[in-house]
């Protein structure tokens, strides 16, 4: 059974960097894309970015100037770093497995999700 | 890329059918069959229920069905049950390896 588990600080100060980790078990991170999605309180889902095990990355255009996603196949983990956070970045952050389609390996759907981690940006 | 457009809420009585629309553009929903739907209960992670427009995930009741016409995808819940009361999100590939979600629809069972 594939499982994903987010970890990281629950509280980050404004202007600082938010670091999150996603640990994958039950599957190799060397297959599929792996993504980050967030959900602000009472709001909808917002895609942050996807990474493939070979390092191919795509970020949401609205966040790409502040986001870095890395993958560590040796530890079966991938990470998220969001810089210069503000209160607007307060959200539940989810990591998820993303299927792809076609020879160009384009992202398709997210089938396994972590339970999510609530991150509050506040001084 | 803008978020896909969903109605904020839909409601129906037990046994009725409800349909949730998800409107995008010719660059996302209209261009690809990579449309998926997620069910989310309060305080829980989203759960994939439909992928590739109309394929149900294993274990999802067949009262859930998906379709697409031009730039609009739809999720229909037939024979509405109390446990179907949840938030539903659509998602589409938007080209250039970008993914976009809808704003979400709250389904209320009257």
The share of residues in extended strands of chain B comes to over 45%
Q: Gap between N and C termini of chain B, in Å?
A: 35 Å
Subunit organisation of the chains: heterodimer
Mean pLDDT of chain A: 95
Order of helices and strands of chain B: EEEEEEEEEE
- In DSSP terms (H or I, runs of 4 or more residues), the helix count of chain B works out at 0
Compute the number of helices of chain A: 0
The mean pLDDT of chain B is: 97
Model regions low in confidence, pLDDT < 50 over at least 5 residues of chain B: none
Radius of gyration of chain A: 14 Å
Which regions of chain A have little confidence, pLDDT < 50, spanning 5+ residues?
none
Q: Pair with the most extensive interface?
A: A-B, 25 and 25 residues
Features:
heterodimer, A: 123 residues, mainly beta, four-stranded antiparallel sheet, 0% helix, B: 110 residues, seven-stranded mixed sheet
Structure description:
The complex is a heterodimer of chains A (123) and B (110). Chain A has strands at residues 3-7, 11-12, 18-25, 33-39, 45-52, 57-59, 67-72, 77-82, 91-101, 106-113, 117-121. Chain A contains no helices and eleven strands. Chain A is mainly β and 123 residues long. In chain A, the strands form two sheets. In chain A, strands 2, 4, 5, 6, 9, 10 and 11 form a seven-stranded mixed β-sheet that branches. A four-stranded antiparallel β-sheet of chain A has the order 1-3-8-7, with no helix packed on it. In chain A, a hairpin with a 4-residue loop joins strand 9 and strand 10. In chain B, a hairpin with a 6-residue loop joins strand 3 (35-40) and strand 4. Chain B has no helices and ten strands. Chain B is an all-beta fold and 110 residues long. Chain B has strands at residues 9-12, 18-23, 35-40, 47-51, 55-56, 64-69, 72-77, 86-93, 99-101, 105-109. At the A-B interface, strand 5, strand 9 and strand 10 of A face strand 4, strand 8 and strand 9 of B.
């Amino acid at each position: 059974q594939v499982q994903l588990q987010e970890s990281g600080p629950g509280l980050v100060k404004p202007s600082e960097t938010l670091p999150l980790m996603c640990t994958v078990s039950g599957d190799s991170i060397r297959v599929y894309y792996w993504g980050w999605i967030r959900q602000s309180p009472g709001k909808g889902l917002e895609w942050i970015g996807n990474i493939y095990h070979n390092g191919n990355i795509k970020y949401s255009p609205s966040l790409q100037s502040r986001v870095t996603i890395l993958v560590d196949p040796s530890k079966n983990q991938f990470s998220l770093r969001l810089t210069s956070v503000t209160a607007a970045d307060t959200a539940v952050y989810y990591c998820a497995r993303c299927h792809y389609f076609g020879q160009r390996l384009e992202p398709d759907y997210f089938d396994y999700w972590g339970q999510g981690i609530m991150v509050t940006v506040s001084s | 890329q803008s978020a896909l457009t969903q109605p904020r809420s839909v409601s129906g009585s037990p046994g009725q059918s409800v349909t949730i629309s998800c409107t995008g553009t010719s660059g996302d929903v209209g261009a690809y069959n990579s449309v998926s739907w997620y069910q989310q209960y309060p305080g829980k992670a989203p759960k994939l229920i439909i992928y590739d427009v109309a394929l149900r995930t294993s274990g999802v009741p067949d009262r859930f069905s998906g379709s697409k016409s031009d730039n609009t995808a739809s999720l229909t819940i037939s024979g509405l049950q109390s446990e179907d009361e949840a938030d539903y999100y659509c998602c589409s590939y938007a080209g250039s390896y970008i993914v976009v979600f809808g704003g979400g629809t709250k389904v209320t069972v009257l």
